[in-house]
Each structure stands twice: as structure tokens, then as C-alpha cells.
Amino acid sequence: MPPTTALMSPATLSWCFMICTLSGSLLLWHRLWLRPRRLERALCAQGLRGRPYRPFSSNEAGKKNQKSSMPLGCHDIVPFVVPLLHDAVQEHGRTSISWIGPMPTVTIVDARLTREVMFGKSGHFEKLRKNRVLSTLLTAGLPTHEGEKWAKHRKILDRAFHLQKLKLMLPAFSSCCQELVTRWTESLCNSSSKGFWEVDVCPEFLSLAADAISRTAFGSSYLQGRRILELQSEQVQRIKASVKMISIPGYTSLPTKNNKRMRNINNEIESILQGIIAKKLQAMQEEESTKQDLLSLMLESNMGKIDCNRRSGVGLTIEDVMEECKMCYFASTETPPTLLTWTMVLLSMHPEWQDRAREEVLGLFGKNQPEYDGFRRLTTVTMILYEVLRLYPPAIAFHRKTYKETELGGITYPAGVIIEMPVLLIHHDPDIWGVDVHEFRPDRFAEGISKASNDPSAFLPFGWGPRICIGQNFVLFEAKMAVCMILQHFEFELAPTYTHAPQNRKILRPMHGAQIKLKALV
Ligand code: HEM
After folding, report:
1. Residue 420 has pLDDT above 70, yes or no
2. Which CB contacts under 8 angstroms, 24+ apart, belong to 493-498?
3. Rounded to two decimals, what is the model's pTM?
């Protein structure tokens, strides 16, 4: 049989080409003009206002504050971190329209509606999967956590992340923190400036979090864990470099140099993980495993249900476990260091709270290794961590998308609208938290989270509802351990080089680093 092309005349080929070009253009016209305009009309007709749609307009948020800084000790960060959103709320009210590429985004500054969306009772709001950096990561191999598959994973992960099980990992945490304290003490001794040593705590805490997740997730496979983190961060850099192309559907399947490299990175990560999981499973079968790392707990929760033939069954497949490991690595690398960094910055700005916290820690543990059972009695440290999470939440907003027409707060949202819930604004709302909303006042949490404001569920640093952060206990545990050990050994204050400039780059971090002066405690 002759090849198909031989049957086509040049005229037919050029017709095919024209038809393809025309349908491609029509599709683009529909996606970039017709659909966004239709959605915009539907929203505006119900009285919503905001930024009008302009195709290819870039996301200007964040550009406005690039060079400026804030006064030291000022925590009224909303106008600085999200100036456009702040202006939009002033101008258009608490529900306003903006755009993520061709997707209309309705920002809702309302704790009650946020709860409704996050709780997802109607089931009509889904997590974003396309058009965002994280979503591209998901398509690059991380789990999407949608539907039935998500529910199954979530149940197993919830069991693995149970607080009682997490405390098994205490020795791994302690040794990571101990190494940090030893490193800082040595640097302090070798420092030319007598009595103190200046350090940018951001990279220090990043490295601590990487150590902690490597050891607590994979125990003995610590070095391979570090390699996975290196590969993941290269993957993230590559994605950031190509961020402008992300909104093009099917982009990650294109055989570009960047995509090929991402696929290779993914393959390398998976082959390391396969090796680690196989070793761990063998040890568990031979009952040698100490079950003191996250992977063991995850496999243990699933024991007897793992589908080694990779069919979908009751438990997780090996691929599922690998995906979850990647997710845990990814989710836990940057957020915990951010929490610790802001805690150090705020305790430096408010030395009276630093003293109170140290007094509590020394009273409970002296200079000994902090113990899990004592953590429950750490009331001051807990209040401080909550107040840091309130004022500087690492994740400043959550997003969901309507997949079908949905009613919310008296507005009918068509399918395809992104709902943005800016936690940062809810945490800085004087109507909820009172006139001292921008003050660092950990004692507002003295009677627990529910009594800290006039809306018991307005504190949302870890999200809400069925998709609430899986690692919240894990991270609070980690933060308490690190804060206790730092307070036991050092006094600290802001270095003169520190500039107060919180910035949202995927998570809320100090734009110019967090330079802290450490002194050894005598
Ligand atoms: C201070 C540290 C952390 C903060 C502020 C934080 C915040 C969040 C938030 C807000 C969400 C929900 C996002 C949404 O609903 O759209 C989330 C989800 C998640 N977090 Fe965290 N997180 C932190 C640490 C961690 C750690 C240490 C881990 C893992 C060890 C982790 C694992 C996850 C996972 C797997 C999800 C997805 C859950 C799901 O979709 O069902 N997080 N996190």
C-alpha cells in the first residue's frame, strides 16, 4: 500500500494546513476572548465589579512593591504585600473580579464564605489543576488528589500523620535541631565580632527543613532524600523559568528541551524512590523496620493492601506511595522554614515575648533536650506560633474553581470561575480580630484559637475542611522543637542590615532575607 501522503495532492495538503490553522485560531479566539468576556458579563450582570479583562495582560500584583520596605515592627502588611488586591477591596468592596490569564478570579474577603467554599458541602468547588505553577508541578508527576482517589489517599495519609505516630519521629527532629544549634554555636565562637554572630536565618531554616523531612520521611535513606530535594528544586526552577507558557493547554507534553529535562528529573526521582520503598518493604516484611519514619508509617497504614501489581485496589499502589512521598517533600520544604523565619523575626522585634517564651522553655526543660510530652504545656510558645501564622501566613490565599454553575453568597457563579480566598486579608481584618489586629499580641490565643477572635473559624493558616493541610501537626511539632532549642541556647535581635519587606513569592517570605544577630546564652 502506498504511503498516505502519496495520496494527497499539494492542494489537499495546503487545504488541511489551512483548516488546522483556522480551527487553532478559532479555539484561541474562544479561549482568550469569547469565553472570558462571556464569564465577565455574567459576573458583572450580578453587580460584581473589578479589573476589566485584557488578553495577555500580565499579573501586575507584586510589581508595585519591589523596591520599597516597611517600617520595622509594623505588621500592617496587606497594602505592602498585595497592593492591587488592597486597592481593589477599597474600590470595589469585599468581592471583586481580577484575572489569572483568561480565567476570571473572584476574590472573596469573607471568613464565612471561605469556610463554605473550603468545606465544599456543595462539592462544586475543585482545587486548581491548570494555569498555575503548582498545578504544572502536579502534571509533572505529583498527585492531583481529586475525587475518589484523593479520598482514599487522604484517609491513609491522615492515619500516617496522626499525632501519636508523629511523636515517634522525635529523635530524628531533635538531631536535626541539635546539629543546627551546634553549627550556630561554632560560628558564634569563630565570629570576629565579639559576642555575637550575624546570620541570615532563611537559608539556615531551609536546610533544617530539608534535613528534617529527609530523615523523618525516609529515615536511613537520608542522603537519597537530600538528592530528591535537589532534583525537585531544579524542577521548580525550570518550571518558574517557563512560567509564561504554563497556561497553554498540553504544554508539558510538548517535546521541548525543558520538558525533556523535567521528565528526566522525574524519572530520576522515581527510581530513587522505588529503591527506597522496595528496601523499606523488605525490612518491614522481615520485621526489621523501626517504623520511625513517615514512609514506614504510610506503608504500615496500608500494609496488606498495597497493590504490587499496580492495579487500583483498596490500598495505594507503589506509584501512589511515590507520588505521596514527592508531595510530602514538596509541601514541607518551604513552608516550615518560612514559619520559623518569621518567628525569629517577630521574637526579635518583640523581645518581651522572646523573654517570656525562653522563661517557659527553660522552666519546662532547662537546658535538656525538649520532650514531646512537655510540648502540650508550652502555652506561650504555642500562642506565639499561632500569632506568627496569623500575621504572616506562609500561604496567603487559597484557590478553588467552579466546575459547574454554583451559588455562593447570593451570586451565581458560572463554571470556570476561580474563587480566591485571601487568608492574609481575613487574618488582618479588624472586624474579626479587633482594633489591635495589626499588633503582635500572642495572648489573644490565650484561651485557644476559637476564642481569639469574634469568628471561631477565621484562623486559617492551614486551610479548612476536608482538604486542610495534612502536615499541620507535623509542622507545629517541628516548629516547637526548633524554637525551644534556639531559645535554650541563644538570645537574638534583628541585625542592622535587616529590612522589613514581606513579599509573596508563592509563599510569604522576607524579600531581603532575615538577618539576625545571635548571642550565646550564658
Ligand atoms: C507552616 C507550614 C505549612 C503551612 C502554612 C501549610 C499550609 C497548607 C495549606 C493552606 C493547605 C491547603 C491548601 C488548599 O486547600 O488549597 C495545605 C495542604 C497540604 N499540605 Fe500543608 N502547610 C504546611 C506544611 C506542610 C507540611 C510540613 C506537609 C507535609 C509533610 C504538608 C503537606 C500538605 C499536603 C499533602 C496538602 C494537600 C492536602 C490535600 O489536598 O488534601 N504541609 N497546606
Report:
1. yes
2. 493/348, 493/351, 493/517, 494/72, 494/345, 494/348, 494/349, 495/198, 497/198, 498/72, 498/345
3. 0.87
